Structures are given as C-alpha cells and as structure tokens.
C-alpha cells in the first residue's frame, strides 16, 4: 500500500505548538469570566455565609457576628420591644419601633430614648470602614392630618436616626437616608393573627440597614 495514499495522522510541528497553549489560555479566560459573572450576583451576606460554611469558622466583623453582638445587648438591656434585627440578602437590618421611639406623627426622638438609641447605634461605629449604612423610614397607610405627608414623616424620622448615627462617629459619607412612606409592605406571615391596630403599628418603623 502506498503510504502517501493511506490515512495520515497529523502531528504538530514546533511552529504549531503555540496553538495548544493559546487554546488553553482562551479556555481558562472563559472560565475566569464565568466565575466573575457568577460572583457579581452574590451579595456580601451570601459571600460571608459561603466563607463561613467552607471554613467552619465565623468570619471576624461579619454581619452575622455583628447581629449576635446587637442581640446580646438587646437582651441585656431589655429592648426587645424597641428594636429587632434580621439578616437578609440586602444586609443586616435593625428595625426600630417608631411608636416607641417617636411620638405619634412626630419626627423628634423621644428624649428618654436618645441615650438608649445612641448606645445601640454605637455598636455599629467600629465597622464603618467596612460597611455602609442605609436608614429607611416607613409609615402606615393612615393619611397624615396637617401639612406634613407620610413621605415627609418617614424621611424626617430617618434623618433623625441618621443624626444619632453620625453622633456615634459614623462618617456622613457612609450613610444614606431613604423615606418610603407606606409603600413597602411587610410580609403577611409577620401579620397573621394581629389586629388592624397591631398591623399598622408594625408598619411604623425606621430601619438601619448595614450592607
């Protein structure tokens, strides 16, 4: 059989070897960018949870460790009716009961609660170089009587808490203020079995979100 007519297996010469390296490089780059794209959809809370799950050790200054610190203080000072915490995909949320922190329809902090509130917010001060803070004001759906609207009331209350957070040493550039009036509804599971007045009371809140 004529060898020139048989099936020949191609062999790469030294001049063509770069093609293999180039193909490997492209593949690695593709994998790298896929990983970057996936990481872009993972928020800080999830990243910390993944790190803790892989290492088996709670990360220092993680949102979950800050939550534990605040929960211990809430229990120690008996503030369960004033403040509660929740770790969500958007960050660590400290929810202040507006009915206990502010007088009805007012945006000035009750004097007897200022020291307590600042003490609680000071727990966050050591972490201002790692996290940012959003202060959200919320109201119930009851229309305000007078010149001020629920939009203004929610924003003014958030601003009042922002002032106290700044007073603890958190730089203003690390804080943003948001007023939502009654546009952000609570999960219905939290409202099951409550009276109308109790449902309204839960909607009146100021949230300090660490993210």
Descriptors:
211 residues; alpha+beta; 60s Ribosomal Protein L30, Chain: A; 2 domains; 5-stranded mixed sheet; 7 helices; elongated
Structural notes for this entry:
This protein starts with 17 loop residues before the first helix and ends with a strand. The relative contact order is 0.13. Helix 5 crosses helix 6 (150-167). It is elongated. The model has no long low-confidence stretch (mean pLDDT 85). The protein has helices spanning 18-40, 44-55, 63-77, 98-101, 111-121, 150-167, 196-203; strands spanning 83-88, 91-97, 133-138, 175-179, 205-210. The protein has 2 domains: 18-55; 63-210, OmpA-like domain (60s Ribosomal Protein L30, Chain: A, 2-Layer Sandwich). The protein is an alpha+beta fold. It is built from 7 helices and 5 strands. It has a 5-stranded mixed β-sheet.
Topology:
Elements (H helix, E strand, L loop, with lengths): L17 H23 L3 H12 L7 H15 L5 E6 L2 E7 H4 L9 H11 L11 E6 L11 H18 L7 E5 L16 H8 L1 E6 L1
Parallel strand pairs: 3-4
Antiparallel strand pairs: 1-2, 2-5, 3-5
Helix pairs in contact: 5-6
Task: Describe the structure concisely.
The protein has 211 residues and is of the alpha+beta class.
């Amino acid at each position: 059989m004529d060898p020139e007519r048989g099936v020949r297996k191609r062999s790469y010469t030294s001049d063509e070897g770069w093609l293999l390296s180039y193909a490997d490089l492209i593949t690695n780059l593709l994998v790298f960018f896929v990983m970057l794209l996936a990481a872009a959809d993972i928020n800080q809370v999830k990243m910390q949870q993944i790190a803790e799950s892989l290492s088996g050790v709670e990360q220092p200054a993680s949102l979950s460790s800050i939550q534990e610190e605040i929960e211990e203080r809430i229990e120690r000072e008996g503030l369960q009716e004033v403040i509660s915490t929740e770790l969500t995909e958007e960050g660590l949320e400290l929810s202040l009961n507006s009915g206990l922190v502010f007088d009805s329809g007012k945006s000035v902090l009750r004097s007897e609660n200022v020291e307590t509130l600042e003490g609680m917010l000071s727990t966050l001060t050591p972490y201002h170089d790692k996290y940012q803070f959003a202060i959200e004001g919320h109201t119930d759906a009851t229309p305000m009587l007078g010149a001020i609207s629920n939009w203004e009331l929610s924003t003014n209350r958030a601003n009042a808490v922002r002032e106290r957070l700044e007073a603890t040493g958190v730089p203003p550039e690390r804080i943003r203020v948001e007023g939502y009036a009654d546009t952000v509804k609570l999960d219905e599971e939290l409202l099951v079995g409550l009276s109308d007045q109790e449902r309204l009371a839960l909607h009146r809140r100021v949230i300090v979100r660490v993210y």
